[in-house]
């Protein structure tokens, strides 16, 4: 039982980060139909900028804020310099642009920072809590609570604010949104900014546990993408559930089956789910109109 | 005559290129780079059958590339197969795997297909990393030389001709295929699966044909690369390699065989040139990918074609 709880907690912790990446995918996809493979780089920027700002003597909370600001700036630049000019291009072309952007950002990060792994101090100490015989790091609790707060804040933003409703309207029907006077280009830019902020916060929260380096974004983007698909692309709730599921699958797969195939368990399950439910767990069945 | 030129124009252009390039090569280094270009172009031409003609995305083709590469490493080392036989077994294995997983996977559309093929590619790469007793694990393993009738294929010049010859053959076969009823079925599926099936095209079957063929092309290319390098590592089958293949196809032009060769050339030569920039290599590569995709959206060869038609 303690073993089970241990896997449960570690799975939820890493799953929460996947959920944030998947949420970022979903936000951008809904607003613009773009699959942003540079989403993992926002997480990397969140961790790396915080580490280096903190090392330069900036207090940790300020360093984290700075990291989020940098990520948001990068997200906006990505949209205005690379996505907006390619408006109307095919889905594959846009995917390649975002992959190009991810390679570019990784290359820049390797130069500006370095290629080593870095750690942040835990926000609430390293003394593990005992829960039902399992050892849980306080930082894990912070990651989970932090992700919960982000999801709640995003939900409030989307349903209670005018800007949020504009995002939903653009997601539902871009042309109709434009007709009622919504500046859809600015809405899409906003979705890039919010996605970048969410990813960066995830990076700040998780770096004390998982470490970070210039290259962590790739795997995170793949897992986040898989999680978003598992949940049903474009469904924010699905993204969160999908992220947590991928994290749990990984943790239990590594614990009970094989740690060498840790990354594989998630993908095998996703393949199986897609075979049975081609739209993902929460996806709508879209009918193709001829 | 005109029709023949339309059908085999790109094959002729590639054949002329392979035959004439050595005349201007100042050193054997150029043979090496060109051999690499031809090897990757074989995989890109195959993937273009799937993506450019049948309109189905695959983010996992490096998996099939890796199967070909590891076949010529594992077959001779562990099971005593002759290298050429291992190459055939590898291509067949990739084809069979594509056939088996293709049916369920190809039911998926768009991004769902992308994530499924992505998962498949990652799973295959993971097997190469983890089954260390067979594959040497993360460090990879040595690959024996190809021996044909007592002649050992070693070095850049022989491989230039082997890969170049195979590329010409591969593009000839692809050109024939896309001009055949199968090719028309591919294009019908590309335009609209619903319309194609209304016209009586067995959509599932033709998608599977394209998937299996592209897997075989990739496996042959993978085997060539392994034999040429004399070494194979899990990175051969990695996610970034899959992305490279997709980029080659889209960069050169979807539905253009010559375009795939151009795309392979750019993505192979560019990193060689960029080593001048040392640490800026990746940043510049990413930047170039973005710029090409923004300004030459239809791909290089089709964009140039359109430009010439407008002038002419």
TrEMBL record, chain B:
According to its record, what are the GO cellular component terms? plasma membrane
- One Pfam family from the UniProt entry? BPD_transp_2
Compartment(s) of residence? Cell membrane
Q: Which UniProt keywords apply?
A: Cell membrane, Membrane, Transmembrane, Transmembrane helix
This protein's source sits in the domain of life called Bacteria
**A GO MF term:** branched-chain amino acid transmembrane transporter activity
Stretches that traverse the bilayer: 7-25, 31-50, 57-75, 81-100, 112-129, 159-179, 208-228, 248-270, 282-300
Its protein name is High-affinity branched-chain amino acid transport system permease protein LivH
Q: How does it sit in the membrane?
A: Multi-pass membrane protein
InterPro entries referenced in this protein's UniProt entry, alphabetically: ABC_transp_permease, LivM-like
